[in-house]
Amino acid sequence: MAQNKDFYAVLGVSASATQDEIKKQYRKLAARYHPDKNPNDAKAADRFKEISEAYQVLGDAERRKQYDQMRSLGAFGGFGGARPGARPGAGAGAGGSSGNFRFEDFDIGGLGGLGDIFSSMFGQSTGPRPRNRGPERGQDVEIQLNVPFRVAALGGKTPVELEVNEECPTCKGSGAAPGAKLQTCPECNGRGTISFGQGGFAVQRPCPMCLGRGQVPSERCPTCGGVGEVRTRKKILITVPPGTDNGSRIRLKGQGGRGQHNGQTGDLVITFQVEPDRFFRREGLDIIAPVPINIAQATLGSRISVRTLDGKKVAIRIPPGTSNGKRFRVRGQGIEKDGQKGDLIVQVDVQVPEKLTEDQERAMKEFADASGLKY
Fold first, then answer.
1. What residues contact residue 61 under an 8 Å CB cut-off, 6+ apart?
2. Mean pLDDT estimate for the chain
3. Could you count the other beta carbons within 10 Å of the beta carbon of residue 351?
4. Are residues 216 and 242 in the same domain?
5. What's the rounded mean pLDDT across residues 340-345?
6. What is the pLDDT of residues 39-70, one digit of tens each?
7. What's the maximum distance between 2 C-alpha atoms anywhere in the chain?
8. Sorting pLDDT into bands at 50, 70 and 90, what band is 123?
9. Could you tell me the CATH number of the domain that includes residue 305?
10. Domain membership flag for residue 249
11. Within this chain, do residues 205 and 296 fall inside the same structural domain, yes or no?
C-alpha cells in the first residue's frame, strides 16, 4: 500500500465521520473482502489488507487524532522540499541529500512530539524488526447508556451488555487449529511486519496475514478464523452517580478492548442519556412536579398529597384563589449532588371541566352573579 493513500478514502468515509460510523463502515468492508469469502482472489486480499491497515489507525480515537495532526501537515502526501524542523541533510530538498524520511526528524514545535508518536505507531524502515512486539494497550470502548430519570436523579445501578474481544478459547490466541503446524509467514518472511512506501518515505506495519506473529498455521483455528480473538458479549453492572444529567460521562478502567501481547485492557467510557419521566422533570437540582387540581380546589382552597422523588408523600396546602401554574416549594426534596440539594417544586394545573350538568351550570351562574363576574 503506497504511503500517500488516505485512510479515510480507503474506508470510504469523510474525515468528520464519527467513531461509530468508521466502525460500521469497516465491518461492512471487512465482511465483503474477507479472504474466507473471496478464496483465490488476490485483489480482494489486497483490499482487505488496506482496510485493515486503515481501521487499525482510524478505529482508535487516540491514534486517529495523531494521524489527523500529521495528515494536516502533509505527512501522508509526500514531501517535495525541506521538512519543518528537519535536521540538515535529513531528506529530499535539505542540502541536496535524499535519505529516507524519518518520523523522528519531523520535529514540530508545540505539537507534543508527533514524530516520536508516529515513529512508535508505524515503525521505521531501518531494517527488519523483531517479530515479538511489545504489549499494546486495548482500545477504549465508548457507549451511550439510557437510564431512567429517577435512577439518574437518585443514583443506582443499571446493567449493560457489551461486545468485547476475548482470547479465543480454542487456540489460546495463536490462531492455529488444534494440531496444526506453524510455518513462516510468506507475506512478511517471518519478520511480522511489512514495509510500504514511495520514493524516500517508507514505514513498516504489522503484517495483516500473520498479524505480526511472523508465523501462520497450516490450518486456521475454526473458532476464530486465525485471528486469535473472538467477539463475545458480557454483562456488567454500571453504577450511576446521583444527579447524573444528559451528557454526563464516566470512565471505567479495564472494561474496554482487550490489549495485545499482554497489553493493558482499554477503558469503557459511558455517556449517559436520561430518559424522561411521566411525572417529574428537572430544572438544575430542582424537581418539578405538575399536579392537577379542580376549579373548586383552586377557588376555595384545599390540601393535596404529592409524591416525592424517592416515593414518600408530602402534604401541600393550596390557598383559596390559587391561579393556574402557581408553584409551591418543598425544601430539600430535590436532587442531591456535590454537597448541594435542590427542592421539590409543585406546580398546580387547574383543570376546567369541558362540560357541566344543568345543576353545575346553574350553581356556577349563581356564584358568578353573587361575585359580580361577567360571563
1. 19, 139, 140, 142
2. 78
3. 13
4. yes
5. 95
6. 888 888 888 888 988 888 898 888 888 888 77
7. 106
8. very low
9. 2.60.260.20
10. yes
11. no
Sign of CA dihedral 296, 302, 308, 312: negative
Q: What is the DSSP letter of 164?
A: E
For residue 97, being part of any structural domain is answered with no
Rounded average pLDDT over 302-313:
92
Average pLDDT of the segment spanning 210-218: 85
Question: DSSP character for 104?
Answer: G
Contact yes or no for 268/249 (Cβ under 8 A): no
Kindly state the average pLDDT of the residues 320-325: 93
**Rounded (5°) CA angle 33-215-76:** 55
- What's the pLDDT at 38? 83
Is 22 domain-assigned? no
Give the mean pLDDT of 315-340: 94
Q: Are 80 and 93 within 8 A, CB to CB? A: yes
Instruction: Return the H-helix or E-strand segment holding 295.
Output: helix 295-300
Domain coverage including residue 249:
133-275
> What is the pLDDT at residue 103?
44
Same domain, 166 and 199: yes
CA distance 189 to 84: 36
Q: What is the DSSP letter of 177?
A: P
Q: Which residue has the cell 468485547?
A: 164
C-beta separation of 83 from 94 below 8 A? yes
DSSP state of 97: B
Q: Domain check: are 309 and 366 in the same one? A: yes
CA 239 vs CA 164, 242, 270, 277: distances in Å:
20, 9, 11, 20
Single out the residue in 236, 254, 275 at which a domain terminates. 275
> Which three cell numbers mark 33?
473482502
| Angle (deg, nearest 10), helices 42-58 and 61-72 | 100
Q: What is the pLDDT of residue 108?
A: 36
Cα–Cα dist 350/347, whole Å: 10
Residue 111 lies in a domain: no
**pTM of this structure:** 0.52
